[in-house]
Specification:
This is Putative XRE family transcriptional regulator. It holds the Pfam family HTH_19. The protein folds into 2 domains: about 70 residues, 434 Repressor (Amino-terminal Domain) (Orthogonal Bundle), CATH 1.10.260; about 30 residues. Helix 2 crosses helix 3, helix 4 crosses helix 5 and helix 7 packs across helix 8. The chain contains 8 helices and no strands. It is mostly helical.
């Protein structure tokens, strides 16, 4: 998990006016686990449903929070399983060729706008 994950959920929780206990009760998790998440001390990243619950209740983009938690969105797992052998080559090519990376990311942005 990224340190930004904990900072973001703590900041958003405070803006919303929730205590850790209140938010944990809404999410049906233990407040001590929420505290660990906020302080980046959890032994593992939360499950996707907890991350999405945090995002919905704190008005945070779900995909951003999933990324910061170090998780792969469930709907993307199948795609990654199908193409796992070619992913390292794609990432290497993007790293070695910034123009190619820019094109790929622009295409993604265009697709998401539609």
């Amino acid at each position: 998990m990224s340190e930004d994950f904990g900072k973001l959920i703590r900041q958003a929780r405070k803006i919303k006016g929730y205590s850790q206990r209140e938010l944990a009760k809404i999410l049906k998790i233990d407040f001590t686990y929420l505290s660990k998440l906020e302080n980046n001390r959890a032994d593992y990243a939360p499950k996707e449903d907890v991350i999405r619950g945090l995002a919905r209740n704190l008005d945070i983009d779900e995909e951003e929070l999933i990324y910061l938690a170090g998780r792969i969105p469930h709907q993307e797992e199948e795609l990654l399983k199908q193409h796992y052998k070619s992913m390292p080559a794609l990432f290497r090519r993007m790293r070695e060729n910034p123009e190619f990376a820019k094109q790929v990311l622009q295409e993604v942005a265009n697709t998401e706008e539609k």
